[in-house]
């Protein structure tokens, strides 16, 4: 049975434009909060394949999306490379010993050894392949090397990225060594997700906007392209989605290139710009402002506007970033239903 989401990634005909949401398995669902409480904490939930599979499936049953995205976290990679990770309530992820020197980097494991430690992720995928409906796709994912590197250098989330950028400008060779080590792990990590059963993979560059456009290719995009190329060369039947958040100027200058299938458009980038510059080469995904979900009227208006622009061709509905924890579930259901109603052919 064909999967509507995979068909859309490859520009095949679909009965309507498929839809899913970033962070669709999350805190806005009471069912998710119940499972998370059972797990004890967020990291325990990521490490428990049974429970991670349960929360991955919840939005399909409750909200009606067309694809499941694996429940995990981008920071499991540096965690398994040897960095001690904790999620502090109200503060987010923290690494107890951030990377400060080449010795710190050298102490971390890489390549096959690191990718092989993420067994709980692959087990979750195997469980999901048995339980997901045949027509629903499973999306695997990773953080981009630059986004992961910022957490590893800063030790936590940051608004300034000053430690990461200090290395970028004062010691670029060292930053490239960090990005190289991450890239080599990520290639194998995504490959193992595919071998476990992922139908699609997405690379998130959540902190793309932290890099000035003139340096974005050097310190992020070229590594993402290398990862995508590795996957597409070995697994051409697997769609690859790229999602760099906050780089409209990079798109405007015609700097997006590479062997991948779908470009995720964030809410700060006009969909018309993405269509003009990228729509002939890549399927576009997105890009409703997530806060529109607080209003059903604002949601419908945006879905109609995107549909009028894209005309159901080369497009996947999604938010322009993740759904927020206090969005009413009925509003998320409304978004999904409107996407299907308005785009039905």
TrEMBL record:
Catalytic class of the enzyme: lyase
Positions bearing the site annotation: Transition state stabilizer: 73
Entry annotated with the keyword Cytoplasm: yes
GO molecular function: uroporphyrinogen decarboxylase activity
Record InterPro entries: UROD/MetE-like_sf, Uroporphyrinogen_deCO2ase_HemE, Uroporphyrinogen_deCOase
Transmembrane intervals: none
Pathway: Porphyrin-containing compound metabolism; protoporphyrin-IX biosynthesis; coproporphyrinogen-III from 5-aminolevulinate: step 4/4
Record's keyword terms, sorted: Cytoplasm, Decarboxylase, Lyase, Porphyrin biosynthesis
Uroporphyrinogen decarboxylase (URO-D) domain residues: 18-27, 139-155
Gene3D superfamilies for this protein: 3.20.20.210
Pfam family, one: URO-D
Residues where substrate binds: 23-27, 73, 151, 206, 321
Family named by the database record: Belongs to the uroporphyrinogen decarboxylase family.
Subunit: Homodimer.
Function: Catalyzes the decarboxylation of four acetate groups of uroporphyrinogen-III to yield coproporphyrinogen-III.
Protein name stated in the entry: Uroporphyrinogen decarboxylase
Species whose genome carries this gene: Aliarcobacter cibarius
Lineage start: Bacteria, Pseudomonadati, Campylobacterota, Epsilonproteobacteria, Campylobacterales
Underlying gene: hemE
């Amino acid at each position: 049975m064909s999967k509507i989401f995979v068909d859309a990634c490859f520009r095949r005909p679909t009965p309507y434009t498929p839809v899913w949401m970033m962070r669709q398995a999350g805190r806005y669902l009471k069912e998710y909060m119940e499972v998370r409480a059972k797990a004890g904490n967020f990291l325990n939930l990521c490490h428990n394949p049974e429970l991670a599979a349960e929360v991955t499936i919840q939005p399909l049953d409750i909200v009606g999306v067309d694809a499941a995205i694996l429940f995990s976290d981008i920071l499991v990679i540096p965690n398994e490379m040897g960095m001690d990770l904790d999620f502090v309530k109200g503060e987010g992820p923290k690494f107890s010993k951030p990377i400060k020197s080449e010795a710190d980097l050298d102490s971390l494991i890489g390549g096959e050894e690191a990718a092989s430690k993420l067994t709980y992720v692959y087990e979750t995928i195997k469980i999901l392949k048995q339980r997901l409906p045949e027509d629903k796709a499973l999306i695997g994912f990773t953080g981009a090397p630059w986004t992961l590197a910022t957490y590893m250098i800063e030790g936590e989330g940051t608004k300034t990225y000053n430690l990461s950028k200090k290395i970028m400008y004062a010691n670029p060779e060292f930053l490239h060594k960090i990005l190289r080590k991450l890239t080599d792990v990520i290639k194998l990590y995504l490959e193992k997700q595919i071998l476990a059963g992922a139908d699609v993979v997405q690379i998130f560059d959540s902190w793309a906007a932290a890099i000035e456009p003139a340096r974005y290719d050097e310190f992020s995009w070229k590594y993402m392209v290398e990862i995508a190329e590795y996957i597409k060369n070995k697994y051409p039947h697997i769609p690859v989605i790229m999602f760099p958040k906050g780089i409209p100027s990079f798109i405007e200058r015609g700097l997006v290139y590479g062997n991948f299938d779908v470009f995720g458009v964030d809410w700060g980038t006009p969909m018309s710009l993405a269509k003009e510059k990228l729509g002939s080469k890549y399927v576009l995904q997105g890009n409703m402002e997530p806060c529109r979900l607080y209003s059903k009227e604002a949601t419908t208006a945006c879905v109609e506007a995107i549909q009028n622009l894209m005309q159901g061709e080369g497009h996947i509905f999604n938010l322009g970033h993740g759904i927020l924890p206090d969005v009413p579930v009925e509003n998320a259901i409304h978004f999904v239903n409107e996407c299907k109603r308005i785009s039905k052919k």
